[in-house]
UniProtKB/TrEMBL annotation:
One of its GO terms (cellular component) is small ribosomal subunit. Residues 1-39 have a biased composition (Basic and acidic residues). Keywords: Iron, Iron-sulfur, Metal-binding, Transit peptide. This is Ribosomal small subunit Rsm22.
Amino acid sequence: MEKNSSNREQKYGSEGGMKESRAQRFMKREKGEKAEKKAPLGRGTHRHAERRKSVFSRAEILGDKKIPDDARDIIENFGDIAADVMGLSSKQRVFLAAEIRKLSHKLTDERTTRRVGYMNDAQSVSAYISYFMWWNIVRLTRLFSSLPKKALDIPDGGIAIDIGSGPLTAVTALYLARPELRSRRITWYCMDISQNALAQGEEIFLSVAAKILSKGGKAEPWRIIRVKGAIGTEIKEKASLVTCANAFNEMIQNETMPTDFLAKKYSGTIESYLEGDGSKPATAILVEPGDPHSARFVSLMRDAFIRRGFLPVSPCPHAGECPMAGRTQGKRDGKWCNFAFSTDGAPDKLLKLSEKAGLPKERASLSFVVCRKDSAEEAEKKRAAELEKIGEERKDARLRIRIASDFIKLPELHKSGYYACSELGLLLAIDESGARPKNGESLEIPYPQGKLAKDKKSGARIVSI
């Protein structure tokens, strides 16, 4: 572990620079120190720099464009599919909105008195599946469909574990979102303290898979093994992927131990479930609600995984210190990492049900991190590639940033822009080119030259896009 830590320190600068020498030179410029650089390019260089592309590439996250066509109808009518599987009568459907509202109170203002096994209650399970699971399917299919391939690299015949699985929300969403995985013989260990939720979830998953197959799909449903138990329950087989969606916010809400201690503890438990001999890559995906408390915990889990030799794959554009770690004792107004989208494109039936239950939504959000530990062979190739690039400083060097806010009006600057995350820390990205990126979008922009001004309110470095 010490060796891994040392390698990371060599590869990544103290403020998160992916290419150490380039980031160090930038920090020297920030401090007004003389940095080594190549000779001037000649007359016209400044004008040429002004004409450089403001955005080299962009990739959306939480958009719905990559959701497969055969999954769209299922997402649109998921409520009816679930109701048929659960065998809800017409009378039960009439009272469903009231049960959803009652469960919402249990999950929010009554959470301190809520029974741990509330999901073993039939009415609670049907309300959860009909509303909360449906909304989570909407969120997760958007997220999973936009993740890079290496984030979901489950081999044929592979093992995966879903912690806090409930009614198999994450597993069902992944099956819908990634058609290339459907043909792989994957065994899922779905772990939850509620046997009732697991049983209903398996039936719903099989029903969804059957509908995909009826549309011409060629894959068999994944194998589901239900595991009744909490995180830490022993599973003899090692996994290439562990998912945990909307579970930690419930696990830790009544904990008395500090959250950084809990992150260290639970990251170790998740690591123990994963392949650990270095012959294969191992990935952990954590998704939580997009609120400040949950986002803070996700950031702490990210840090804990990095200390264990993992690297963030998404949404982070770097592996340095998180500049959006949320509210801490030393920074009560700290920015917290979450991503949101408008519910205009959500299923009409779900929007109507939400209105009827008194829980309308105009925005849906989440916080997440995908952390991956490469195989020994992959890690060595990456180290060699990084060493080759050390010392390079090209005029077309690029900086990858992740947009982490909605459109912001900046009257003091007479402009508008967005908060963004980068290897240089928190950025305030001024939209000079009219790019209008979406919340969560990844951009590559020209690497900043010279000293950057800072936003007085947030302390973020100001860049142009």
